[in-house]
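Notes from the 1:1 (GR / supervisor)

We went over the backlog. Supervisor wanted to see one worked example end to end before approving the batch request, so GR pasted a single chain during the call. The sequence is below; no edits were made to it. Supervisor asked that the structure be written out right there so they could see what the output format looks like.
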Amino acid sequence: MLALGANFLAWVWLFWQTPRDDQQLFLHYNVLFGVDKVGGYGGVFAITLVGLGILVFNYLAGWLVFGKDKYTAFILNMVGLICQLFVLAGSVLIVFMNV
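Structure output shown during the call:
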């Protein structure tokens, strides 16, 4: 539930904080090369969509494995939570790059 809440918070943060005009937005920043990917408004939601896919996959895999090995199911759910925390951090950084 905590991982799903983090993903939802990332969606809401990006929706409310990202400008919705037709200008190009910074989507990816690299320390060595600077901004290396720009795109439109819909591109900022790619990180949250990938995070949601990871969350669903890990949840379903953990559900399938739970009867055989509870520890593996726990690890899959924790990896999903950690991924969602990184998605949330990435969403915050995308907003701050485009302010």
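Supervisor's comment: The chain has three helices and two strands.
Batch request approved.
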